[in-house]
Fold this sequence. Notes:
Layout (H helix, E strand, L loop, with lengths): L4 H30 L5 H22 L11 H27 L2 H8 L2 H13 L5 H19 L6 H24 L9 H23 L3 H11 L3 H25 L2 H23 L5 H23 L2
Amino acid sequence: MPLSKDAIFISSLVILWYSSNIGVLLLNKFLLSNYGFRFPIFLTMCHMSACAILSYFSIVFLKVVPLQTLKSKPQLLKIATLSLVFCASVVGGNISLRYLAVSFNQAVGATTPFFTALFAYLVTFKREAWLTYAALVPVVAGVVIASGGEPGFHLFGFIMCLSATAARAFKSVLQGILLSSEGEKLNSMNLLLYMSPIAVLVLLPASLVMEPNVMEVTLELGREHRFMWLLLFVNSVLAYSANLSNFLVTKHTSALTLQVLGNAKGAVAVVISILLFRNPVTVMGIGGYTVTVMGVLAYGEAKRRFR
């Protein structure tokens, strides 16, 4: 029986989503750890610049989604706040890739539901059913196990990765609070359109101050390695493609399908990274990551049942 056009379309979106997310993750690791490009803030600024330009082109010219205009200065201030938290999350994740294997980075990143539930309770006093919270125990326990079995464990890298994961969760909770009114709600593509330029304005001076020799070293690397600029360009475009494909997959699939696909994506990224970078793994590390993923799946199912 031939596949329907819808099935082919959704399958293509999922492939684009996987390849974009995994591609940008592996390229980040390659540039920051293996290529001598040790500037995570500048790299994040390149990502945000691509997101700003391509978001504008996609929305204004390609009409991927209708353009949503900002209604007021308070709304702009709220988006600026979200942009700062978003910057912290992405920069923290990129810094962690300098010190941690992608496999361990993904294991720590899988604890996002734990931090989301924590911030939702602390900030909005939103409580979940006890079974939902019980499902978060293996999410955290798995990372503890994986940390004990990680041959290349690096404390600073772990702290940055954990901070990035917490910031990502905090942004999602904050977004629900700040842009809660119907007049201020933005879809994720329009939100990216407005957040990206603000992020560039923050990251550019931060990079020049905290990474003072960034331009000199980048130009030198560009002269030494002929593919340097191509890698940086492809990496930045993939960062936007990851956001676009995530939006489209969310739009065309259910929340449960998205969660299952998201967890599978993390597992695929781990396998590919181990094959590419040959980083050592242990049975305890794989076991810990498996426990975390199972906990995330249980948490999603518990939330769905007790919604």
